[in-house]
Amino acid sequence: MNILFIDDDQTLHQTIGGFLKKQGYTVFSAFTAEQAINIFIEKDIDLTITDIVLPDFDGIRILKAIKDVYPNAEVIVITGYCEMKNARSAKHYGAFEYLLKPIDLNELLTTIESTKVYEKKFSRGNKE
Predict the structure, then answer these.
(1) Cis bond upstream, residue 102 (ω within 30)
(2) What value, to the nearest 5°, has the Cα angle with vertex 57 and ends 53 and 60?
(3) Residue 4's CB: how many other CB atoms inside 10 A?
(4) What's the confidence (pLDDT) of residue 122?
(5) Of 56, 117, 118, 47, which Cα lies nearest the Cα of 78?
(6) Which residues pair with 28 in a beta bridge?
(7) Whether the predicted pLDDT of 128 surpasses 60
(8) CB 95 within 8 A of CB 89
């Protein structure tokens, strides 16, 4: 499974990216929305994990843009700011889940494994 991880925190990329790679996932890192768009266009992305606060764009807008073009795409939204407005917006625009930082890696893994993408890719018992 190819995961696009969008966040401007280098340490979080190392922590989450490293953890997911150890679980057998391919992780593409983007620190800005512009990088994320380029990766999303160039790679076959199965799942996107995006922060809400980015230096050049809003994560909710990224979610909306992805869902507008790929309605069945799975997106997990993460944030360090617990605001009901953002949580409602994320769900309204089709986020699979809304997780708060600091991210519990086991919770993230469980969330990924409960997506339709995971079920479709790994339902036959063989990881790609």
Answers:
(1) yes
(2) 65
(3) 25
(4) 66
(5) 47
(6) 4
(7) no
(8) no
CB atoms within 10 A of CB 121: 16
Q: Whole-angstrom Cα distance, residue 108 to residue 97?
A: 10
Q: What is the pTM (predicted TM-score) of this model?
A: 0.90
d(CA 40, CA 47) in angstroms, rounded, equals: 10
Q: Which two tokens stand for residue 119?
A: 């079920």
Q: Rounded to an integer, what is the distance from CA 2 to the centroid of its chain? A: 10
The DSSP code for 17 is I
Torsion angle of C-alpha atoms 70, 35, 97, 92, degrees rounded to 10: -60
CA dihedral 113, 127, 29, 15 (to 10 degrees): 60
Tokens 């994560």 correspond to what residue?
59
Residue 75 has a CB neighbour count (10 Å cut-off) of: 24
| DSSP label at residue 14 | I
Query: Is residue 32 a contact partner of residue 57, using CB atoms and an 8 Å limit?
Result: yes
Task: Classify residue 99 by burial, with Cβ atoms within 10 Å: 0-12, 13-18, 19+.
Answer: middle
